[in-house]
Amino acid sequence: MKCPYCSHPESKVNDSRPSDDNTKIRRRRECLACGRRFTTYEAVELVPIMVIKRDESREPFDKQKLVNGLIRACEKRAVSYETIQNIANDIEMSLQNDLDREVPSQLIGEYVMDRLRDVDEVAYVRFASVYRQFKDISTFVEEINKLKKDK
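Structure (tokenized):
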């Protein structure tokens, strides 16, 4: 590892430990030339996932966009931000664990609805109304009846 102070290409690791969230390894290093210490972090590099939109365009998966959609669906509901983050993390991990590097946006929407159905029914219907582009009240009623039948 190149020293950030003197640019010497070699350093030694004095200490290694997992970060607080266990997603990175924190390494305390010492430059072999100037003796100054510095910290580096090592993390797994995830392969980017491309989302295929309804109009066939593609864009990189953005977890924050997913979180924002969940926040809108759960607005003024008793759903904690931690729960929303957990849903987004679960969906991101599901997508990473799939072998496909390109996923249709419809699949992501189905993942969201599966998780929201168990968390909050009102948030589920809100999300479904936007995701499925409900045109009238009868479509709402059909979705609510499906939800009742599944319970």
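The chain has a mean pLDDT of 89. The beta strands are 11-18, 24-31, 37-43, 50-52, 58-60, 102-104.
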